[in-house]
């Protein structure tokens, strides 16, 4: 289950959005914590070229930046994934980079 809100442009902030999602809402596992099921965050563009992202994934801070040039796009992100049954047990910090061309 999830929802998304798109915000109107304000000063230098454009294409801003906020999203929230809950996974496994029908699970019968009692040991699984609420925070492990919740994912939320936001994104805004400071210019047409630079995007900033931040939020929470399974109780851990996530974030990223994106560079959107006319010929290519470059995105960098980091997030924590919970390997245990409840948030705060075993964090696995992950990093991702995406480089793509626009034709």
Describe the structure.
The chain is mostly beta strands and 103 residues long. 4% of the residues lie in helices and 59% in strands. The chain contains 1 helix and 7 strands; from the N terminus they run ββαβββββ. The protein has one helix at residues 34-37; strands spanning 2-6, 14-22, 38-45, 50-57, 60-68, 72-82, 91-101. The chain has a 7-stranded antiparallel sheet with strand order 1-2-3-4-5-6-7. It is globular and about 50 Å long. The termini are far apart. The mean pLDDT is 86.
Instruction: State the separation between the terminal residues, measured CA to CA.
Output: 35 Å
| Radius of gyration over C-alpha positions, nearest whole angstrom | 16 Å
Low-confidence stretches: none
Largest sheet: 7 strands, antiparallel
Average pLDDT, all residues: 86
Strand sequence of the main sheet, in spatial order? 1-2-3-4-5-6-7
Q: How large is the share of residues in beta strands?
A: over 45%
């Amino acid at each position: 289950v999830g929802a998304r809100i798109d915000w109107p442009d304000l000063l230098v902030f454009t294409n801003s959005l906020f999203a929230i999602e809950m996974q496994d809402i029908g699970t019968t596992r009692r040991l699984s914590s609420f925070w492990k099921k919740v994912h939320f965050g936001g994104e805004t563009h400071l210019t047409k070229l630079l995007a900033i992202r931040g939020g929470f994934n399974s109780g851990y801070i996530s974030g990223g930046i994106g560079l959107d040039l006319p010929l290519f796009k470059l995105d960098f992100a980091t997030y924590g994934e919970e390997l245990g049954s409840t948030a705060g047990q075993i964090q696995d910090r992950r990093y991702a980079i995406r480089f793509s061309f626009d034709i």
